[in-house]
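Ligand: adenosine monophosphate. Inputs:
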Amino acid sequence: MSFTSLGLLDPLLRTLERLNYLTPTPIQDEAIPIILKGRDLMAAAQTGTGKTAGFALPLLHKLLQEGPRVSDNRTRALVLVPTRELAEQVLQSFIMYGQDVPLRSYAVYGGVSINPQMMALRKGVDVLVATPGRLLDLYRQNAVTFGQLQMLVLDEADRMLDLGFAEELDQIFSALPRKRQTLLFSATFSEAIRTLGKELLRDPLMIDISPRNAAAVTVKQYALPVDKKRKTELFLHLLAQRGWGQVLVFARTRNAVDQLVEALQKKGITADAIHGERPQPARLRALARFKAAEVQVLVATDVAARGLDIDALPHVVNLDLPVAAEDYVHRIGRTGRAGASGEAISLVSADEVAQLAAIEALMGQTLPRQEEPDFVPTHRVPVTTLGGHIVKKPKKPKKPKIAPGKGKSKIHLGNWFDES
Ligand code: AMP
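Predicted complex:
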C-alpha cells in the first residue's frame, strides 16, 4: 500500500515525499481510510507506530476538503493529550505534515502564561492541540468555543485517565457539538478506556495494531536483580561497562530523578532531568539537549514519559519499576521505535516483586533475568510466574543439629531467580 492509494490530497502527498515517508505504517494503512470515510475510530497503538501521522494526515485532508474557514476564537479539530510534552510533539507533527496546506495549528497547555495563548486563539485555529486543564481555562474565559468543531481526537487516552483528567474531560465533552467525528487512541485498552469509548464514540471501528498490551517486538527486555541501595551504583557500572551511548532512564519519583542526575554529573557524565515539578521551559530544554546529543543521559518520571519523541533510542533503563503496570509499556515504548531494535533494562529490587509480577501479567510474559556479577543482591527477588503469582519463599530447611563446638553449617536457600 502507498500513501497515494490511501487517497490523500496532493499537497499532503508532496510533503510526505519530501519527508521520505515511502510507505504507510500498519496503523496508518488501517486508520487513514477509516478516518477519511468519516467513521469514528478506537485504536490501540503505541507511540512509535506512526500513529500521529495516522490521525494528523486524514484530519488535515478533511479540514482542507470540508467545512467553512475557521472563525475567530474557534477551532475545527481538537486533539486532547495528557502532557505538555506530548502537546508540543503533536503540534510539531501537524506543522510538519501540514507545511504545504493553508491551515493553522496551535497547542495550549498549562505551566506557561495563558495570555499569549488567548491572543493566538483570537483569529481561530484549524487544529488545536490541548491538555485538558488549560483548555477548560481558556473555554471558561471564552478564548475558545466549539461551534465549528468537526473532529475530536483523544491521544493517549489511557494516560489522560491515569493522570486523573476524567472530570475535566467530561466537562469538555459536554461543551462539544454532538455531531462530530471522534477518534480515540490509546496504548492499551483497559476497561476504563472501553467505557469511555462507549460513551463518546458512535458506532466506532476498532483497530488493534499491537498485540494487546504487548511491547514492540524489537525491544529486548530483561530484569537485573539488585539491592535497592545499589541501584545508582549499578547504573553507573552498566553505563561504563557496556559502553552505552545515550540512555533514557525512568525513575518513579522526582527525588530519585534528581539524585541520579546529581550522581551522574559528579562523575562528569552529562545528564538532565524531566519531571512534573520542573518548569516547562526547563523540561523542553532538557529534551532538546538530549535530542541534540548534548547530554548523554536523560532521567524522567512517568509524567514526562508519554511526550518524548526520540528516534531509535537503543537503551531505556528503569531505575525502578512503575507503580502502574501500564506505565511500563509506555516507558519501554521509547526504545525500538519505528522498527529499530532496542533494549529495555529494569533494575529490580526485592521490594518491587509485586510490581514486577503485575507487569509480567499485563505483558503476558515473564521478564528474563540477568545477574550482573558484582551486584548479585543479598535481598533476593522472589521468583515470579505468569498470572502475577509470586512464588513464596519456601520454608528454610531445619537446621541440622550440630554438636557444640563444630561450627555453623551453611543453609542453602535455593535459587530465587527465574531461569526463563
Ligand atoms: P509516532 O508513533 O506518531 O510517535 O511516530 C514515530 C516516528 O515515526 C516519528 O518520528 C515519525 O516521524 C516517524 N514516522 C511516522 N510515519 C512514518 C512513515 N510512514 N514512514 C517513516 N517514518 C514515519
